[in-house]
Amino acid sequence: ERPSEIVSQKDLPELKVEKKDSLTDIILKLFNTPWGKQTRKLSDVKSVLDSYGLIYPKQSVAVALLRLAQSGKLRRFKGEEGEYVYTSGVG
């Protein structure tokens, strides 16, 4: 099994990260792009962050996603393979 591959440049969402942005802020920005309108798995979010050189532990990304879902900023549900997927909270 190959490690999660780096997302190709054309598939990368537009992301402007500021120094003060927390991981949660960055994830919200991601999901506010057209990229975030489709369902995304934890591994998708992690590989986009990696592509931008934003290296966070997988667990930190998972916790941030969960908190965003609990606060209603993202929607979270079980995907076809039984793992959670996330999408922007806005219908």
Low-confidence stretches: none
Structural class: alpha+beta
Number of helices: 3
For the termini, the CA-CA separation is: 35 Å
Characterize the main sheet.
Answer: 3 strands, antiparallel
Q: Give the overall shape.
A: globular
Portion in strands? 5-15%
Query: Compute the gyration radius: what is it?
Result: 12 Å
Question: Care to describe what's here?
Answer:
This protein has 91 residues and is of the alpha+beta class. 35% of the residues lie in helices and 13% in strands. It has 3 helices and 3 strands. The chain has a 3-stranded antiparallel β-sheet with strand order 1-3-2. It is globular, with a radius of gyration of 12 Å.
Summarize the structure.
This protein has 91 residues and is of the alpha+beta class. The chain has helices at 23-31, 42-51, 58-70, and strands at residues 40-41, 74-78, 84-88.
List the keywords.
single chain, 91 residues, alpha+beta, 3-stranded antiparallel beta sheet, 3 strands, 13% strand
